[in-house]
Amino acid sequence: MAPRSDEELSDHVDRIRADIAALSETVRQLVGDTAGIQATLKQRVGSAAKQAAHAGGDILGEAGALGEEAVEAAARGATAAVDSIETQIGSQRSRRRSGRPADGSRLPRSAGYCSFWPRVSRSPRARCGLPA
User: Fold this and answer.
1) CA distance between the termini of the chain
2) Which residue in 103, 132, 100 sits closest to 114, CA to CA?
3) 98 φ, ψ to 5°?
């Protein structure tokens, strides 16, 4: 069906131009809204990244503190172990000075031990006055 007159054709062209103008305005608004959404997302992602970095720093600090406590506990345990060993060595030395072995039993003089054995720097038999 052909248009009836030039006037109708002009009306159709005007309506098409108005529709194109309305569509152009809508597209302009969508572009503006999209830019706003992008800016908001960028701000939120930046804020989330800062919070994550802060939380990571806190976790790292806590891990460091726990590691420091573990090192201190290990040092205390090692010190206690060394003190215990030194105490045992000291008690064994005092037993040897008394002429007794570490288990508390007595050895005969012929075995090469005597009461002053650890104090003299000669062979065990010579220390006790026995021939070498």
Assistant:
1) 142
2) 100
3) -85, 0
Residue 100, classified by CB atoms within 10 Å of its CB into exposed (0-12), middle (13-18) or buried (19+), is: middle
CB neighbour burial string for 16-51, b if at least 16 within 10 angstroms, e if fewer: eeeeeeeeeeeeeeeeeeeeeeeeeeeeeeeeeeee
The residue ranges of DSSP E strands in the chain, in sequence order, are none
Q: Taking the CB of residue 124, how many other CB atoms lie within 10 A of it?
A: 15
pLDDT tens, position by position, 16-47: 999 999 999 999 999 999 999 999 999 999 99
Q: pLDDT digit string (tens) for 53-89? A: 999 999 999 999 999 999 999 999 999 999 888 888 8
